[in-house]
Structure formats: C-alpha cells, structure tokens
Amino acid sequence: MALGSEGSDSSLHFPRILCLHGGGTNARIFRMQCRAFKYHLGSEFRFVFAAPFPARPGPDVTAVYSNCGPFRGWLRPVDETEDQDFYAAEASMLIQNSINTATIADNHLGATGEVVGVLGFARIAASLLYNQQLRCQQLDGGSEMKTNSVMNWPNFRFAVLLAGRGRLVWLMPDVPMPQDLFLHCSPLPYRPCCKTTLLAGKGYISMTSCSCLRSMSTASKM
C-alpha cells in the first residue's frame, strides 16, 4: 500500500520511504498516524506500507481504531513444538516478501523512485538497519561472517525509529545469531552507518553515526 499525493501522479518519481507500523495495527492506521509526515515530506517523498502477519490488536488500539481491522504485525506466535530453525527461515522470507510485495504493488501504480529510507517502530526497523550493516561489512571484507541468504532488501540511507523497545529480529537464519545482542538490551557492536532520527516526545533528536557517534543535535519540534 502506498501513500503519495492522492489523486495525482506527481509523487510517482519521488524517492520512497518504507513505513513499518507496530505490531497489532495495520497500514491503514499507520497511514492516518503519518499524516504529519505526509504534510511536511509529501512533496519530496512517497510512502510505502508493509507488514506480513495477522495479529491481535495492540494495547489501546481498539479504543481508537476498533473498526480499522484486520490487524497485522511483524512476528507470529511460535508453538514450542515447531522447528525453530525452520520458523526463523520462514519468518525472514515472509518479512522480505511483504516488503518486496508492497514495493512491487507501488511499482504497478507507476512509482519509479528508489526506496531510500525506513520509518517504523524500532524492533523491525532497527533490525533491518542492523541486517543491512552486516551485509555491508561482508561486502567490504570487514566481517568473517558468511551467509548464503539471497535477500533483495532495500538499501536504506536514513531511518526514523519510533518507540525504541524490544529485542531486534534476526533476519539471516543461515548465520549464527549473536546471543548477547538479541537476548537482552546491549550496545550494538557497530552503529548503523546511516543517518538515524530517533523521535522523543513532541520533538526529535537527530543523530548521524558511522561506527561511532559523531554528532548529535536537537532539532525543532515537528
């Protein structure tokens, strides 16, 4: 599902931002929640929404959006009897397929812009950034980790992360997962090499990082 300039083709060539809503909501709800972003950025970016799994509504969602189902999320419940390795591979594939399907559907509407950014709730959005970082390290020869995964992920140049809670989601099932990073909160061994904006309350903090935090500035309120 895409959110551009409704009733106009003017946004079809714009670079695109992948919008990843939190668990237990959906693209329709996140589209309404992103109206301020559209107001400020709609003349320069096109918005694409995705999420793969059916889910129960999140906390307090039904108080406002009870008639906006069905609800979706980025993780699905796992039965203890399931093969965990198979589940991890399947989940990674479905997440990737959801993102690719949303982008392809937007392409069919005539959109041609590159997917350059991600706007989303931090668990999945941060996971995509960390996944991209590890791929870049492999390509640059900076990591000994090898993977056979063929993942056609977008190449993000910036990100906006909201509600930074929860553990990261490991998106490379054929690579051993770093337990210390994904089982509890701990600093990333490398910071994502892209510009990341972390929203905080009514304002936001803009951070630019590349291996180490180089600058931090408080931006004006949105």
From TrEMBL:
GO molecular function: hydrolase activity
InterPro entries in the record: AB_hydrolase_fold, FSH-like_dom, LovG
A cellular-component GO term for this protein: cytoplasm
GO process terms (BP): secondary metabolite biosynthetic process
Key words, A-Z: Hydrolase
Segments forming domain Serine hydrolase: 15-165
Matches recorded under Gene3D superfamilies: alpha/beta hydrolase
Classification via Pfam families: FSH1 (PF03959)
Family as reported in the entry's similarity comment: Belongs to the LovG family.
Protein's UniProt name: Serine hydrolase (FSH1) domain-containing protein
Species of the source: Hirsutella rhossiliensis
